[in-house]
Design a protein that fits this description.
Structural class: alpha/beta
Largest sheet: 5 strands, mixed
CATH class of the largest domain: Alpha Beta
Protein name: Integrase
InterPro entries: HTH-like_dom, Integrase_cat-core, RNaseH-like_sf, RNaseH_sf, Transpos_IS3, Transposase_IS3/IS150/IS904
Number of helices: 11
Pfam families: HTH_21, rve, rve_2
GO molecular function: nucleic acid binding
CATH superfamily of the largest domain: Ribonuclease H-like superfamily/Ribonuclease H
Organism: Methylomonas koyamae
Length: 276
Amino acid sequence: MIDRQAKLPIGRQAKLLGISRGSVYYLPKPVSERDLDIMRRLDELHLKHPFMGARQLRDQLNLQVLQIGRKDVKTLMKRMGIEAVYCKPNTSKKTPGHEIFPYLLRGMTIHRANQVWALDTTYIPLAKGFAYLTAVVDWATRKVLAAKVAITLEACYAVDVLEQAFKHYGRPDIVNTDQGSQFTAKAFVEAVKSQGCQLSMDGRGAWRDNVFVERLWRSVKYERVYLHAYDSVGQARTSILDYFEWYNHERRHSSLKRKTPHQAYNDGLPTLSLAA
């Protein structure tokens, strides 16, 4: 992606890569210490109680002696990219120019590596701000194939992490995501289709979808992120990628017959059967 130390002007690099100049020069809007504290608490509450909406989260925050209104909670949730996980009618308006694809995994038995990849993005708290972590996970084997920490939800970062996975692991039959704008953007859709993959998208707030990625977020946050106060995006990136290296090569899973994700991926696990 962008090399800020290169002689080629940043604007020229952005043009050659086909990404917006705005995302390259983007500086995050200042966030108050109070809002950062609330966002960290919201993140923990959402991991523990993913079914809670803005009203219930507001009530939980108020129990912690943090007086905040429901509208403010909704605003912060939107900025963090989180929502309650429950089945509900999809009444939201589509982003102009963004296509929503059907969910393809219902009833499917996912039993081998590179059958389905899942992509998702989660909020990462920093000492004085926040960032977003996007990862590609092999559904059947839990292996983290690629990950990226960035300061925005721009589609270019989702494309970048997906292309990293393509480069090192080939291509899956299906790429499954949620309906986030970074995944419905034309650039991301084209990146998936260019490899001959099918694109599957979760229903908004459907609890069953991308469940393995949600478990990964819980693991990385409680076992690494919440134990540190990262001073920069670079520091967070180094720490999180180090965690994923350990997770892939040393973390054993009972659902993988006590194998690590790396072992399971390499073996292909022809007998593994996971219902979507």
